[in-house]
Design goal:
Helices cover 87% and strands 0% of the residues. The chain is built from 9 helices and no strands. The two termini are 41 Å apart.
Length: 256
């Protein structure tokens, strides 16, 4: 009986949070047209959440591609199919690894930064001060950061995929001796623009919306204390990771 009661409260709390996040998203979408009238704020946040994450994405993409090249070569060599290494690396990056790994890294770097920044504004009563001056903090603070995250995610995923392909090429062709023509020829012949490329683009946009929504939501409603901001930052990482993995499964099942 006690376990059922605890499960009931957990499910109820999750549904309440889901409803609050949905209402918060609708509130942000209502202010998007006004926020687009001030593109300078959006570009500034694109730099903060996107460009500042670029080095992390480049390094991670290179090593993920190199690992895919090494593991793929070792597996395909057992079937004398090393010429298909380019296809393996490209499809793995475009369909799954690129969007998912980038979203997880984005949540860990940019998401936590957004949560802590907005949470500190709440803790230092900057948001309350804006409300007293009849300035909508959602329109002025939250929406530009949300749009910046949605814009930055597909760009970062594209960079991750490109660098990952380079890493797979370095390991497969330069290190392992796979023919360069076969490597790129397999990619050109098997990667479909609509089924593979746009699948990754759609996933990156959905992940960008999800991770950025979690980040700004947790920051905006963080308890105005140091401990509250710390817990909100932790929830951002955990909830974003679980949400990305769940959405990845749903999108994959729907698309394929």
């Amino acid at each position: 009986m006690r376990l059922l009661r605890e499960a009931y409260y957990i499910i109820l709390g999750f549904l309440q949070m889901l409803g609050a996040a949905g209402f918060f998203l609708a509130q942000m979408l209502r202010h998007v047209p006004k926020a687009l009238m001030r593109p300078r704020l959006i570009f500034q946040q694109v730099f903060n959440v996107g460009a500042m994450s670029l080095v992390l994405i480049l390094i991670a993409g290179l090593f993920v591609g190199m690992v895919m090249g090494l593991q793929g070569y070792n597996t395909l060599s057992k079937f004398a199919a090393t010429s298909a290494l380019g296809t393996l690396v490209a499809l793995s990056l475009l369909r799954e690894l690129g969007p998912v790994v980038t979203a997880l890294l984005f949540a860990g770097r940019a998401g936590t930064a957004l949560t802590s920044e907005i949470g500190l504004m709440r803790a230092t009563e900057q948001i309350a001060g804006m409300e007293m001056m009849a300035v909508d903090p959602v329109q002025r603070i939250v929406v530009p950061r949300f749009l910046a995250g949605v814009i930055s995610m597909p760009l970062l995923v594209g960079i991750f995929n490109a660098v990952g392909l380079l890493g797979g090429y370095l390991v497969g062709v330069v290190l392992m001796g796979v023919d360069a023509g076969a490597f790129w020829g397999q990619i050109h012949g098997t990667v479909d623009l609509h089924e593979d490329f746009w699948t990754g683009v759609i996933k990156s946009v959905v992940f960008g919306i999800a991770t950025t929504l979690v980040a700004v939501f947790e920051g905006y409603y963080a308890h105005p204390t140091a401990e509250g901001v710390s817990r909100a930052t932790t929830r951002t990482v955990v909830n974003s990771a679980l949400l990305v993995l769940a959405l990845d499964y749903l999108l994959t099942a729907f698309m394929f």
